[in-house]
C-alpha cells in the first residue's frame, strides 16, 4: 500500500497535535474563576505573570481530548522569572486532559511569575494525578 505525500503530512500533523502543538494553559483562582484573558502556549518558554493562580486548565484547537506531555511549569517567588537561586519551584505534568475543572497548582500556587518548558522538570515533582478532578 502506498501513501500520498498529503496523507503522510496529515498523519504527521495529527501525531504532533497530541504533544505541545497549540496546547494552551488557562490559570484559575481559588474559586476556579479564570484569571485574565490570556491563554499561555506551553510551547513558548517566555516568562509570564498571573496573580493568585491556584489551578490550571488546558485546551487545544483540534480533535484531541488530551496531550501526552510531559510539561513542566516553573514557578518563581519573584517577578521576571529570575534564576533558580531565587526560589524556583517546578511541577511536572506527564500528560493533560483538556477542559475539566483544572489541576491544582501543588507547590507552585502563589508564585509571582511562571514559565512553561517541554519535557521533564529539572527536579522531579511529578503531578500526582494524570487527570484533573471534575
UniProtKB/TrEMBL annotation:
Leader sequence residues: 1-20
Keyword Signal listed: yes
Signal as UniProt keyword: yes
Keywords, sorted A to Z: Signal
UniProt protein name: AA1-like domain-containing protein
Organism: Ampelomyces quisqualis (Powdery mildew agent)
Top-rank lineage group of the source organism: Eukaryota
